[in-house]
């Protein structure tokens, strides 16, 4: 019976050496194969690719096993939702056309079994980080996207690959939890709770997975698949953060 909802983020496919990205892709495909029989909905909450830009007739080369598995899930009736992250914010219509996927620019709010969910990749939320918030506006502008699109794909992808080598995903130190009073996504969620009721907040972007209680609510950060291989599952009653360990999922 298809009655489960799965959430994952920050696969960063393409980052690092080709061999490590390929092994990570195979782990992700194995996980998708594992969930294919009971998944009703799949939410991929940003930075699925370390870089993605859709030209009018060209998309990035690679990830064929991952894309093929998504197509298999879509053909089986799984509703797929893709969020734009800070690394793959230039997703446009390709996945809508090929997978009938829903593409989310920013936040998504929905209700399931009387519980309200707030989903967002997590970039640019909370206090501080003014430099990135400005860059996000520039990179998402129609003018910037058009200027990049006129570059030959080999040039554009080359620029992106050089940029990627300096990204947090490629050069991350061990992530440390900063505390409930300093984690910007927790601060953001608490601010929203002052205005509106949500049962669950689910974010990506912050590469450290965590599950924290808030005021009559919970916040789950999904982590990433370079080090943690974590995801969340909603079974209609409870939301659980899990770890995928080569076919042996366990609670995180």
Q: What is the topological layout?
A:
Blueprint lengths: L3 E5 L9 H18 L3 E6 L19 H12 L3 E5 L10 H6 L2 E3 L3 E5 L2 E6 L9 H10 L2 H8 L3 H12 L3 H4 L12 H10 L6 E4 L6 E5 L2 E5 L8 E5 L4 E5 L6 E2 L1
Helix pairs in contact: 1-2
Tell me what you see in this structure:
With 252 residues, this protein is an alpha/beta fold. It contains 8 helices and 12 strands. The strands form 2 sheets. A 7-stranded mixed sheet has the order 4-3-2-1-10-11-12. It has a 5-stranded mixed sheet with strand order 5-6-7-9-8, with helices on one face. The longest helix has 18 residues, at 18-35. The chain is globular.
Name some characteristics of this structure.
5-stranded mixed beta sheet, 7-stranded mixed beta sheet, 8 helices, 252 residues, alpha/beta
Q: Give the low-pLDDT segments.
A: none
Sheet with the most strands: spatial strand order = 4-3-2-1-10-11-12
The helix/strand class is: alpha/beta
Structure summary, number of beta strands = 12
How many angstroms separate the termini? 25 Å
Cα-atom Rg, whole angstroms? Answer: 18 Å
Largest sheet: 7 strands, mixed
**Mean of the pLDDT scores?**
89
Shape verdict: globular
- Helix-strand pattern, N to C? EHEHEHEEEHHHHHEEEEEE
Count of alpha and pi helical runs: 8
Tell me what portion of residues adopts beta-strand conformation: 15-25%
Helix content: 25-40%
